[in-house]
Amino acid sequence: MQIGNRSGRLVLIEGDRALDVERASDGAFGPDPQDAYERWEAFRQWAEGQDASAGEPFDVAELGAPVPRPRQIMAIGLNYADHAAESGFDLPENPVVFAKFASSLTGARADVAVTGDQVDWEVELVAVIGTGGRNIPEAQAWDHVAGLTVGQDISDREVQFWGNPPQFSLGKSQEGFAPVGPAVVTLDEVDAAADRSDLALSCTVTHPDGTSEELQSGRTSSLIFTVPDLIARLSKIVELYPGDLIFTGTPDGVGIGRDPQVFLQAGDVLRTQIEGLGEIEQTFVGR
């Protein structure tokens, strides 16, 4: 099943059709996309019996962030060995954790302002918590995941490295810097298409002159700290809540790690794909 946010309303998605949950459930579930995660088990059981193909046609541009108001957005740095190397760091012994603030969320299609001269890209698998808790055992961690989605950890490197120590969270929380979508895909649907622990992920840019290039390409099997490991480690310290987002890290190929460095410019179109989860697209515009 795919859970989406169509113009601010909770929907189930199949192909190019979206089933409005409030109407299909006769009001048993409300229109707010966030409510699906607050009542996760009841919602999941109801939704599994629905035929989303009976819904209305929709345009991907109508899709907002599928989890619009998470209580926590945690992001993991240096979680691929090649990215740690290009960043000049040793492999971390523990997850490197920072926050992306909820005001930076946007959906599958969005215009994003180029806020400076060093705006960078980072394709990321995002795990969405369904059942929260503390001290979640790694062996049971997947049971706490509602689904997976595509994310971009867009970063203003000038703000990120304002001082010593750097401002990771601020540099990654400008408006539109946390695009996610197009939908939250439940694990059963992911498993039907691919191996949830070994998903191909990539991003490409198309420049205003029409030329395109692949920026990043990797597989989630290369994660240093896997999704279950992250959930177990994080939940030892903080309580995880339904609807929380965990950005799991990016492979190598970011702009700041190149020689010479390369960054996004106004007019660039960034497309981000993850196997079994779909694609998101951002168009970068001037300030």
Overview of the structural elements:
- The protein is an alpha+beta fold and 287 residues long.
- It has helices at residues 21-24, 35-38, 40-47, 81-86, 157-160, 168-171, 187-193, 227-235; strands at residues 2-6, 9-14, 17-20, 56-57, 73-77, 96-99, 105-106, 109-113, 119-120, 123-129, 145-152, 155-156, 178-185, 200-206, 212-219, 245-247, 269-274, 278-285.
- Strands 1, 2, 3, 4, 5, 6, 7, 10, 11, 13 and 16 form an eleven-stranded mixed sheet that branches.
- A hairpin with a 3-residue loop joins strand 17 (269-274) and strand 18 (278-285).
- The chain starts with a strand and ends with a strand.
- The mean pLDDT is 97.
- Residues 73-284 form the Fumarylacetoacetase-like C-terminal domain.
- Belongs to the FAH family.
